[in-house]
Design brief:
Strand content: 15-25%
Mean pLDDT: 92
Shape: globular
Largest sheet: 8 strands, mixed
């Protein structure tokens, strides 16, 4: 029998804890995320860059346009949890003389992809670091943008501490995250089916692993950021409209933590259930519409 790698043992332990009803540690969660980034490089833009929202633009564009509202000349910006750097596509046109943008992600693999795609711009730097220990001086940053990353960060309290430390007075954090509003329609059916599937195979299962739910609702954000920060504002939630074929719907499901933790030998059964729903929900054009609830929020120091 081939010797198992430390990485595979970590993942087996991670999944077994979840299915046994045990909440994995923060370190186990972060190790799992790094594994996903290695297996599915650039998985975030594969979903979010190729689909628009009910507001029109993509979620990347919505975040970039709001960053631009506060962007002034000669500022320092952080793309926090940058992943493979797709957000830089929309921030790059905003860069002015003496600006400096730094892409930060805990995955060295993702940072390497970002540097390869955007490293020709001398005003963009790339750093592999955890959000809990940012390599920046106190009060040195004007703006921080975070696209679909804040809700994955554990533990979240040291992240908030670091954001407060590095932001200048009047500096802002702008983030797009999942919303706590439950998905409806076909995506809601998918989520319910996946959870029922897991529970039927693992009776001790309690809940899916995730980041801190407080990053997904206004009351939670206020608990995290106030009273140290000046203000927290959450804008009206919006939806990512994912219109795909039934097979594309299953491919999307494979980017979800709830599906990714299911062992490969059981995924074919889950795939059949998802495809049955997808085929029943097809529109006239043969595609399925999945609406993912998102939210944009802004914190000012």
């Amino acid at each position: 029998m081939a010797e198992q790698t430390c990485e595979s043992l970590i993942n087996i332990n991670f999944e077994s804890k979840i299915f046994s009803g045990i909440t994995p540690s923060d370190d186990a969660w972060n190790a799992y995320l790094l594994k996903i980034y290695k297996e599915l490089p650039a998985c975030s833009p594969a979903v979010f860059a190729n689909h628009n929202t009910n507001l029109g633009p993509s979620s990347y564009e919505i975040l970039a346009k709001n960053i631009e509202l506060f962007h002034r000349p000669a500022q320092r910006l952080i793309d926090l949890g940058s992943g493979s750097g797709h957000m830089l596509k929309y921030i790059s046109p905003q860069i002015r003389k003496n600006d400096l943008v730094t892409a930060v992600d805990m995955s060295e693999d993702e940072i390497k992809i970002a540097a390869k795609d955007y490293g020709n711009n001398s005003q963009i730097k790339f750093v592999a670091a955890r959000a809990q220990n940012l390599p920046f001086s106190d009060e040195s940053i004007d703006l921080i943008g975070a696209h679909m990353s804040m809700m994955l960060m554990r533990p979240i309290e040291p992240v908030v501490d670091e954001i407060y430390r590095v932001l200048k007075k009047g500096g802002r954090l702008l983030a797009v995250t999942n919303s706590t509003e439950p998905a409806s329609g076909t995506l809601g059916l998918f989520n319910a089916t996946i959870l029922d599937f897991i529970k039927s195979h693992y009776p001790q299962f309690k809940q899916l692993p995730n980041g801190d739910i407080r990053t997904r609702n206004l009351d939670g954000l206020k608990e995290l950021f106030l009273p140290r920060f000046k203000s927290v504002e959450q804008f009206t939630p919006f939806y990512l409209n994912i219109e795909v074929t039934p097979d594309g719907a299953w491919a999307f499901c494979n980017t979800l933590v709830s599906v990714n933790i299911v062992p490969q030998d059981k995924r074919s059964e889950l795939r059949s259930r998802i495809l049955e729903i997808a085929n029943a929900q097809r529109q006239m054009n043969g595609k399925v519409l999945l609406q993912m609830p998102l939210a944009l929020w802004v914190v000012e120091k």
